[in-house]
């Protein structure tokens, strides 16, 4: 047990999905897991363990932003022995070629967060995904016929930028595909502790075109993403 997690040793599977929203964690457990049981409810940041296709898997909400995610990921790795972590979230689109409902599989994550920058002194660390998880995710997305893009994600500590899309001009010029708030910290902690991590996000709102998913379409797209992530998680 930790100050943020009431789970006991062995309550988490080696592979854990990481949505930000606690209710999305519950939705995943209720709709995808067999024999789901709640393992954490501290601060309502819900965690569950069950099975998917007969293999153990867990889901743990991380809250919003890199500081919050870092607490849960640090503890999952160092207190509960988790070795494969897959973020399943939503993101804003930064490239016209990325359409709503498309998946972005983040091979790297640029960030404005001092949480990552300050840890490396004079160096600019490049947070990147685990290659084996990335490769497996791409292969399964192709097999399933899912629309996906592999590229750089932006993990920002700021949701409401005063200058909106203009604040992302530099990273857009360098090919960034989407923006969210967690992946860079996830990749940094995975590298630090020698475990594997991947972030997969459904693009739900385009900052470029203004397109956005309806509530019904969002649910359907998240189903595709979670199924993909679970298949990758149990094969890892």
TrEMBL record:
<feature type="active site" description="Proton donor">
    <location>
        <position position="205"/>
    </location>
</feature>
<dbReference type="Pfam" id="PF01048">
    <property type="entry name" value="PNP_UDP_1"/>
</dbReference>
<feature type="binding site">
    <location>
        <position position="43"/>
    </location>
    <ligand>
        <name>phosphate</name>
    </ligand>
</feature>
<feature type="binding site">
    <location>
        <position position="4"/>
    </location>
    <ligand>
        <name>a purine D-ribonucleoside</name>
    </ligand>
</feature>
<dbReference type="GO" id="GO:0004850">
    <property type="term" value="F:uridine phosphorylase activity"/>
</dbReference>
<comment type="similarity">
    <text>Belongs to the PNP/UDP phosphorylase family.</text>
</comment>
<dbReference type="GO" id="GO:0004731">
    <property type="term" value="F:purine-nucleoside phosphorylase activity"/>
</dbReference>
<feature type="site" description="Important for catalytic activity">
    <location>
        <position position="218"/>
    </location>
</feature>
<feature type="domain" description="Nucleoside phosphorylase">
    <location>
        <begin position="15"/>
        <end position="222"/>
    </location>
</feature>
<feature type="binding site" description="in other chain">
    <location>
        <position position="24"/>
    </location>
    <ligand>
        <name>phosphate</name>
    </ligand>
</feature>
<keyword id="KW-0328">Glycosyltransferase</keyword>
<feature type="binding site" description="in other chain">
    <location>
        <begin position="204"/>
        <end position="205"/>
    </location>
    <ligand>
        <name>a purine D-ribonucleoside</name>
    </ligand>
</feature>
<dbReference type="GO" id="GO:0006152">
    <property type="term" value="P:purine nucleoside catabolic process"/>
</dbReference>
<protein>
    <recommendedName>
        <fullName>Purine nucleoside phosphorylase DeoD-type</fullName>
        <ecNumber>2.4.2.1</ecNumber>
    </recommendedName>
</protein>
<feature type="binding site" description="in other chain">
    <location>
        <begin position="87"/>
        <end position="90"/>
    </location>
    <ligand>
        <name>phosphate</name>
    </ligand>
</feature>
<feature type="binding site" description="in other chain">
    <location>
        <position position="20"/>
    </location>
    <ligand>
        <name>phosphate</name>
    </ligand>
</feature>
<dbReference type="InterPro" id="IPR004402">
    <property type="entry name" value="DeoD-type"/>
</dbReference>
<feature type="binding site" description="in other chain">
    <location>
        <begin position="180"/>
        <end position="182"/>
    </location>
    <ligand>
        <name>a purine D-ribonucleoside</name>
    </ligand>
</feature>
<comment type="function">
    <text>Catalyzes the reversible phosphorolytic breakdown of the N-glycosidic bond in the beta-(deoxy)ribonucleoside molecules, with the formation of the corresponding free purine bases and pentose-1-phosphate.</text>
</comment>
<comment type="subunit">
    <text>Homohexamer; trimer of homodimers.</text>
</comment>
<dbReference type="GO" id="GO:0005829">
    <property type="term" value="C:cytosol"/>
</dbReference>
<dbReference type="InterPro" id="IPR035994">
    <property type="entry name" value="Nucleoside_phosphorylase_sf"/>
</dbReference>
<dbReference type="InterPro" id="IPR000845">
    <property type="entry name" value="Nucleoside_phosphorylase_d"/>
</dbReference>
<keyword id="KW-0808">Transferase</keyword>
């Amino acid at each position: 047990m930790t100050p943020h997690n009431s789970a006991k040793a062995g309550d988490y599977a080696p592979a854990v999905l990481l949505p930000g929203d606690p209710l999305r964690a519950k939705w995943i457990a209720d709709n995808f897991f067999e024999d789901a049981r709640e393992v954490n409810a501290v601060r309502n940041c819900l965690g569950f363990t069950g099975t998917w296709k007969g293999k153990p898997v867990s889901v743990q909400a991380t809250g919003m932003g890199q500081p919050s995610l870092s607490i849960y990921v640090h503890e999952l790795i160092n207190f509960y022995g988790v070795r494969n972590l897959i973020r399943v979230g939503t993101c804003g689109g930064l490239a016209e070629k990325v359409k709503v409902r498309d998946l972005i599989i983040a091979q790297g994550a640029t960030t404005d967060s001092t949480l990552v920058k300050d840890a490396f002194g004079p160096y600019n660390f490049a947070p990147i995904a685990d290659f084996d998880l990335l490769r497996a995710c791409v292969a399964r997305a192709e097999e399933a016929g899912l629309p996906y893009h592999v590229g750089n994600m932006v993990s920002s500590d700021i949701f409401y930028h005063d200058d909106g899309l203009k604040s992302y001009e530099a990273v857009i010029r360098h090919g960034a595909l989407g923006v969210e708030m967690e992946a860079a910290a996830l990749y940094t902690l995975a590298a630090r502790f020698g475990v594997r991590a991947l972030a997969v996000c459904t693009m739900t709102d385009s900052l470029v075109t203004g397109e956005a998913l309806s509530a019904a379409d969002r649910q359907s797209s998240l189903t595709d993403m979670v199924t993909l992530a679970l298949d990758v998680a149990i094969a890892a």
